[in-house]
Amino acid sequence: MQKLTRYVWLLWLATNSLWAQNPIIHSHNDYEQQVPFWNAYAAGARSIEADVILKNNTLYVAHAESEIQETRTMESLYLAPIQKGVAMGMITEQPLQLLLDIKTDAKKTLKLLVQTLEKYPSVLAQQQITYVISGNQPEPKKFKDYPEYVQFDYQALEPLTDEEWNHVGMISLNYKRFAGWNGKGRFTKEDLAKVKEVIEKAHSYHKPFRFWATPDSKSAWKAFTDLGVDYINTDMPFQCVNYVRSLPKRVYTNTVFSEVYTPTYEYDQTEEAVKNVILLIGDGNGLSEISAATLANGGELTLTQLKSIGFIKTSSSDDFTTDSAAAGTAIAIGQKTYNRAIGVDSLGNAATNICEVLQAQNYNTAVISTDEITGATPSAFYAHQKDRGMNQEIAADLYKSQLTLFAAGGRKYFQEPLPFTIVDTPEAIANTTAKHVGYFMAEGGVPSVLNGRGEAFPDVVANSLVYLGKQEQPFFAMIEGAQIDTHGHFNDVSGIVAEGIDFDKAITKAIQFADTHPGTLIIVTADHETSGFSIPQGNLENHVIEGDFTTHDHTATMVPVFAYGPHSQDFMGVYENNEIYHKILKLLNL
């Protein structure tokens, strides 16, 4: 007997764990939906509630007798549609609960209800459909007097006999008896303790649990899901189902960390001459993306140690919302241009980019990216094409480029040998004496951090800076963390956070270089924000981030600029993205 009890308990624990992760959405007062039953069922709600009133030997669906409408009966709104759905194969084998809240005399109403259900044998034959009686109901000792397919919504926490529990389908309690939280902000500590105690007590009876009279908001749905409430009460079944279903993709527990480096600040915000410029661009890395990476990393990044902070406006010349090509080109050539443009002005004419300007002044130049080298942002710093989709033409421009160094994906675009010494490892970049060096991080697209890239990006950055630091000439390097944007387009919180933290590792390498190489200016910005990302909730201690999104595309929100080193203060304020080009050249006296 002891072994059996233990087995049942373990089975219940496994089942309850599944409930907690995937609560059933309960369409409260479903008859008030524009299309009762079908609205909720099509949305994915699998528990549907109807208030039932017995009058003139008819079961009406209404909250009060004064609200009765002759055509709105239990049969017309629920049983007939379910029967038709079963006949048409639209009611699948997925469990479905019909919760019937009886408002009139329990004995008389239940008697007619059972008679009415018996008129629908094809519905009763569907074992995945259960009928749970709420509201007015007989005493628990009389539960056994009703057919097995009728179960009861027990609205107390007092123990019952085993036989009585066999007829209980769920436990429901009035939320307002235990807490006053209105679904905005968070529970008070006291209310949270009370609510947890109630849920744990209900689950100790091995029964699913529901609160009624709950707040109906995203914050409430998330809180009750996390607390293990098995049925989420809502008057908005479509919105609630979509929100709860999306939680596994939108809630991420971080496992990738950036070791925060505290800069020396020895040369920061000084008037010393600028020699080297390292421009780091986080593609799609808006303020919320940076915030998510910061919070998931324990509340700090190396980036957040920087003191000189501004904002840039990102609109392109032909659109309110930029793409990466126009934004990258604006920074590279110092002019606003149209979306999809690569290194050309708003009329489609090739424009000298910052790398070409500096090459003419005997600077070394580098382009490093976790994108393919023909991607929009890296190519804006060496190519000149009218459309970002012209991959072969963009690749051909790399053959003509005078870049000192490139490192990115996209080896597949280059069948003929490039005028670069191609090395096979990040360490080989630091060790080569070649005048022009290239490193392909992948044949095509570079893997993401969560798909095996590991430390490749910060390693490439560190070794590239060693290589550039050994040269006699000053240098300009554009370093792009490209895949924050990629995951933003897919509304993937895990990727946004992991790529943002990996980008910070690259920033750390740059800051450390600046601290040991006087005259090095660091600029960290983004080309645009992607996805309208926001952070409604999370857990700092456990490195948990819940993200939400307004779009799968770019947005026009301003993005931050962080700067470090001599004249970093010149990058404070609010200005257009193309001004970064002019600020850099001004500081280099060009």
UniProtKB/TrEMBL annotation:
<feature type="signal peptide">
    <location>
        <begin position="1"/>
        <end position="20"/>
    </location>
</feature>
<dbReference type="GO" id="GO:0006629">
    <property type="term" value="P:lipid metabolic process"/>
</dbReference>
<keyword id="KW-0479">Metal-binding</keyword>
<dbReference type="Pfam" id="PF13653">
    <property type="entry name" value="GDPD_2"/>
</dbReference>
<feature type="binding site">
    <location>
        <position position="377"/>
    </location>
    <ligand>
        <name>Mg(2+)</name>
    </ligand>
</feature>
<feature type="binding site">
    <location>
        <position position="480"/>
    </location>
    <ligand>
        <name>Mg(2+)</name>
    </ligand>
</feature>
<keyword id="KW-0597">Phosphoprotein</keyword>
<feature type="binding site">
    <location>
        <position position="489"/>
    </location>
    <ligand>
        <name>Zn(2+)</name>
    </ligand>
</feature>
<feature type="binding site">
    <location>
        <position position="283"/>
    </location>
    <ligand>
        <name>Zn(2+)</name>
    </ligand>
</feature>
<dbReference type="GO" id="GO:0004035">
    <property type="term" value="F:alkaline phosphatase activity"/>
</dbReference>
<dbReference type="GO" id="GO:0008081">
    <property type="term" value="F:phosphoric diester hydrolase activity"/>
</dbReference>
<dbReference type="InterPro" id="IPR017850">
    <property type="entry name" value="Alkaline_phosphatase_core_sf"/>
</dbReference>
<protein>
    <submittedName>
        <fullName>Alkaline phosphatase</fullName>
    </submittedName>
</protein>
<feature type="binding site">
    <location>
        <position position="528"/>
    </location>
    <ligand>
        <name>Zn(2+)</name>
    </ligand>
</feature>
<dbReference type="InterPro" id="IPR017946">
    <property type="entry name" value="PLC-like_Pdiesterase_TIM-brl"/>
</dbReference>
<dbReference type="Pfam" id="PF00245">
    <property type="entry name" value="Alk_phosphatase"/>
</dbReference>
<keyword id="KW-0862">Zinc</keyword>
<dbReference type="GO" id="GO:0046872">
    <property type="term" value="F:metal ion binding"/>
</dbReference>
<keyword id="KW-0732">Signal</keyword>
<dbReference type="InterPro" id="IPR039559">
    <property type="entry name" value="AIM6_PI-PLC-like_dom"/>
</dbReference>
<keyword id="KW-0460">Magnesium</keyword>
<feature type="binding site">
    <location>
        <position position="485"/>
    </location>
    <ligand>
        <name>Zn(2+)</name>
    </ligand>
</feature>
<dbReference type="InterPro" id="IPR001952">
    <property type="entry name" value="Alkaline_phosphatase"/>
</dbReference>
<feature type="active site" description="Phosphoserine intermediate">
    <location>
        <position position="324"/>
    </location>
</feature>
<feature type="binding site">
    <location>
        <position position="283"/>
    </location>
    <ligand>
        <name>Mg(2+)</name>
    </ligand>
</feature>
<comment type="similarity">
    <text>Belongs to the alkaline phosphatase family.</text>
</comment>
<feature type="binding site">
    <location>
        <position position="527"/>
    </location>
    <ligand>
        <name>Zn(2+)</name>
    </ligand>
</feature>
